[in-house]
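STRUCTURE REQUEST FORM
Protein name: N-acyl-L-amino acid amidohydrolase
Source organism: Pontibacter amylolyticus
Requested output: structure tokens
Priority: standard
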Amino acid sequence: MIKLLLLLLTVFLCGPLSAQTKQSKNTGNKNSNPTWVKNIPAEDVITWRRHIHQNPELSFNEENTGKYVEEVLKSFPNIEVIRPAKTSVIGILKGAKPGKTVAFRADMDALPMQEETDLPFKSKAENVMHSCGHDAHTAVLLGTAATLSKMQNQLKGTVYFIFQHAEESPPGGAIDIINSGALKGVDAFFGMHVLPNFPAGHVGILPVGAASTAQDVFHLNIIGKGSHGSMPHLGIDPIVVGAAIVSALQSVVSRNVEPGEMTVVTIGKFQSGDAFNVIADRAELAASIRTTTDKTRKQVEERIKEIIDNITKAYGATYELEYVPTYPAIQNDEALNAHARKSAVGILGKEQVFDAPMMTASEDFAYYRKIAPVSFMTLGIGDGAANHNPKFTVDESALQNGVKAQVQIILDYLNK
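Status: completed
Returned output:
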């Protein structure tokens, strides 16, 4: 009798405990895929990416790419397609209920370089290559549009899928789209850029505030006076003037910019002369300047101009200077960043979402902040050559996570 009672007691205690353990395992799986994940056209995303990669087009010339994107968008249900600029495309998905308007942006242009990969779908165009990953950006956003187009009844608000031209060439395509007026009423902008040497499929949340740098460029012609190499007293050597300018510019970062504020002044071009025994009459310099705040950007520009002016006068030379402001720094919004992080963790798991370091590159995505707050993030694509390298490649296994993150960010933003 005692044995029977002990057996019944064991069954009574262990039964509920086993059920509770099973239930705990089920409810604890926060990263189980929602039902919409099965609607992601994973194979199509890769097909779209490879087609665009194989048929790259340079900035402001993305005519065939634009047509291709338009055709693909029109094959999805519930999406209206507009053309805000000659080679850009916007897909608009209106939800079943009114609400906010959110935009996700991808860029479509390629770079002027010869591809040096062995991919079976390598570029067919001579000296044109998708070496920055814009083919992947476009394909991922098409995948996002395809997935959400089947979920119209679940959406409160409107989604803009922006396929932008000419990110690589200032003044950039974002300004054209903004000036078209097509984006009036957008409440938030999100963007995603692939980066190598981060785990494939991991999403990086860039910092709040300056998420990238602003870039300015200058082109300088120093006009001296030519002479024979044996008679330097009869000339004004532009190489000596240029060397003094290059040396002095190094003090801008070390002695003028507030310590701790990221600033880079890079002289990328210094050309002069044709013969070893001739003092040239001209020298050409060109530089890239990177800053993160408007205050420092203005300060650095003024200091560079002062240095060039004073040194050329001191040597008796003259100069022609073209100082070209290009893209401002992306300023990530704190609330949108927190939103993007929460959504990405929710769909991918916290182990696949990380704090990305500030990009030292520049992006015309920054201009969308003229309309509404922005948040820019990264998508890891595995080990490999850097962006803008002729051997650049993309681990395509990362693309599905890109779609997942984008869809979840949009869903959460509209339905919160």
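Reviewer notes: The radius of gyration is 27 Å. The chain has two domains: 35-212+329-415, 214-325.
Form closed.
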